[in-house]
Amino acid sequence: MGLTFPVGFLCFLGKFEKDSTECLKHLEPLEKEEGQNLHKEDSEEETEWPDPLALGGLIPEKHFASFDLCFLQEFIFKLLKIKEFELRELRKTLERARVEQEALQRQLVEFQNQQQRLEVELVGLKTYGVVLEKEFENLNMVLMLSHFSLQVMDTA
Q1: Which residue among 35, 91, 95, 155 is least enclosed by CB atoms within 10 Å?
Q2: What keywords is this UniProt entry annotated with (predicted)?
Q3: Which of 61, 57, 74 is nearest to 20 (CA)?
């Protein structure tokens, strides 16, 4: 059984992949630039940089770190949006299931009431059938008696 996703979710996911690809394209030249910076003189390396921990790990001259953070923030944000979307869909599904369950419960109660009425009606019909059988037997008895009495009168 495969997973199916709503169209909006797939569009959202496609936009995320496109944005990720664009972000990676921006990172490639910066990584090459950083590689070239490694070959520069040692004097540049000795220049004092601000404490990276004080800047939250971001060094303004090193753009790749901010792009990584930007990418991670965007990635987390999009994952959060996806999870929120999934949660909304699950809530909608749960609400539809509740409504359906309530409708089925009402229908079950109706069927149970109808079953009870039909069982009572069946008992009444069985009783009526027994009464009709007795009436039929009585009519047969009267018919037989009248037939015998006619024969007795004919012979007399």
Answers
A1: 155
A2: Coiled coil
A3: 74
